[in-house]
Amino acid sequence: MFLTKECDYSLRIMRALKNEQQRTVSEICDEEHIPDKYAYKILKKLEKAGFIQIKRGTNGGYTLIRPLESFTIFDVVSAVDEKLFLFECLKDENLCPNNNNKTPCKVHNEFLRIQNVLVSEMKAKNMKECLK
Q1: DSSP for the chain?
Q2: Residue-number span of the structural domain to which 72 is assigned
Q3: CATH number, domain containing residue 87
Q4: What is the pLDDT of residues 68-126, one digit of tens each?
Q5: Domain total for the chain?
Q6: What is the pTM of this model?
């Protein structure tokens, strides 16, 4: 679960859009201290995931289109980073040689337990509750 800068910035973008009013990328970036080079990329991902609407043109901007009650921190972070892992060894492609069916790695299993707790906590409250 490497929470990347993109994850952080995506949550800040949601905070900037919480009032469901159209905002420009400049307003969002200035208010939330996000470099615009990241913002455009993240906004596209959030649009693709169905969180925001992008209106292009001179009167364009970004608008939250889902109620804050309908999604969690986990949903936003997952839209930006599809696979979240606390440690490298939890990734499927990084099979740990010390963790197999014959001799399960106790450290690996503990990391997995911790990751599951974090995911559960990220899903525990909706965004409206988080942004009070």
Answers
A1: ----HHHHHHHHHHHHTTT---B-HHHHHHHHT--HHHHHHHHHHHHHTTSEEEE-STT-EEEE-S-GGG-BHHHHHHHHSSS--SSGGGSTTS--TT--SSS--HHHHHHHHHHHHHHHHHHHSBHHHHT-
A2: 5-130
A3: 1.10.10.10
A4: 999 999 999 999 987 776 666 666 655 667 776 777 778 878 888 888 898 899 999 99
A5: 1
A6: 0.83
